[in-house]
């Protein structure tokens, strides 16, 4: 093998090794980031996000991997109308599991949005939401939302692009 070929082989090996190391570092950083936020995100919710149920839910449940304080749990219709489910913040309650009964009929809506906020013992604040629908002919909330925005068209000014 000539010196030129030997250098080319060594350079290829260097590139493969370097790109492998860079990829490993990037993936581990991403996994760490997901893990640190994942502790405070619900491991299980009922209804599950984007679920379509046959019957209206009788409760909303959320389970976390660690004990948290539930600061907010609010239910909204697809039109952003608040539904009072009786949630009250309890500063003394630290738990990994929360259950809130819905002992009444929910108002008609294409889907529902449950929004929550929690904090842990280190006072890290995380919030999120999950959506669900129920009944005959109900569609997953993601399909309804996608249908609402898919017909939109971006209009740029005629004087030029602002990007």
Task: Record the SSE blueprint.
Blueprint: H1 3-38, E1 44-46, E2 51-53, E3 59-77, E4 82-83, E5 95-101, E6 112-119, E7 125-134, H2 141-149
Parallel strand pairs: 2-7
Antiparallel strand pairs: 1-3, 3-4, 3-5, 3-6, 6-7
Describe this protein's structure.
With 163 residues, the chain is α+β, with helices and mostly antiparallel strands. The protein folds into two domains: 1-38; 44-149, Sandwich (Immunoglobulin-like), CATH 2.60.40.1220. It has helices spanning 3-38, 141-149; strands at 44-46, 51-53, 59-77, 82-83, 95-101, 112-119, 125-134. Strands 1, 2, 3, 4, 5, 6 and 7 form a seven-stranded mixed beta sheet that branches. A hairpin with a 4-residue loop joins strand 3 and strand 4 (82-83). It starts with a helix and ends in a 14-residue tail after the last helix.
Structural key phrases:
alpha+beta; 163 residues; 2 helices; 28% helix; Immunoglobulin-like; 7-stranded mixed beta sheet
Summarize the structure.
With 163 residues, this protein is of the alpha+beta class.
